[in-house]
What does this fold into?
Amino acid sequence: MARSRRQHRARHRRGALPPALARRARRGPEGRGHPLVGRGLLLPLVIALKNSESGVLVDAVMLAEDDISIVFSFTRSYFHVDLERVAEAVVFLKSIMPRKPVSELFTVLGRARQGKTERYRELMRHLEHTGDLFEHAPGVRGLVMVCFTLPSFGVVFKVIRDRFPHPKTVLREEVLAKYQLVFIHDRAGRLVDAQEFRRLRFPRERFAPELLDELKREASNTVHEEGTDLVFDHMYIERRLTPLNLFLRSASAEAAERAVLDYGQCIRDLAYTNIFPGDLLLKNFGVTRHGRVIFYDYDELCRVTDCNFRDLPRAESHEDEMRAEAWFYVGESDVFPESFLSFLAFNDAQREALLRLHGEILTAGFWRAVQQRLAQGEVLEVLPYHPHRVRVAGSL
It folds into this structure.
């Protein structure tokens, strides 16, 4: 009897018809027809509830996998979920988000160690069945990190360099502190999750010669050889994104404009959660498969409330305007938002789009207003489930 029940449950999971229905389907009702019995596709459903002064309200209903995937994104802070059997929740979430790796589902449910273990297992299994080489990650080479990737596996590996060339003045300890800040801070769907690993080893033969040479030359304090392996005493692993500067080169005009607008929204969202990226160059941002723009270069990241946002002084003479360096005093924490646009490689149409919708982020007044509201303890919401990419936070 127990075996019969197990067989029945197995058939049910596979979508097979129970024997009685199968016999009836073959015969048809009274021999004149043949009904087809099956199971429809699973439709995911997420209902976002909001606790308001008037009670609990339904704030959004999501039925699309992409929308739900953003809620459980690697760019958001972990959920605080008390589950007796986390694996069962992972199996369920995997059924409605089949493209999301199991490692990320463990992580987003607050099981960071299990997530790291699963990511390591996924990587090792992948290495066993592939032959491509680790190579430099696409984009501009970083001054603080050596970044590399395995083309067939969707992550980036980041190793801190032994020395940082000019103009970087940050110390290794400060870089580690910035990544720790991101780990504990509200990432607002705009900061990629960086998992910290120690003592990882990979076959030396899997590294492209140019990358291997740079690792030995630039990160010898962290990377060394043991037999036929290359051992990394410390590294960060992140999901691989398309660098924004590369995306804009190849995207259609419409897709490029959407990315530029979301770049502005990304900066807004980070500001509302008390994060200033520090370096706003396009190469430090990436684009996800959902078209969202994410920041991933943390060595100059800081809190908005730690910055001194200033209006750009007006030149008093032609000589002042022509100077290569600032003719006025600039403090260590001074930031001049009006100068941001001059460093961003946008074409005319993209620049116009950014100014049209997000021009205020290029003013010191915007940042000082955000500072004031944060200082007053106001919580500026950044919600993950509104579809349009240019939405200003709901509490504004």
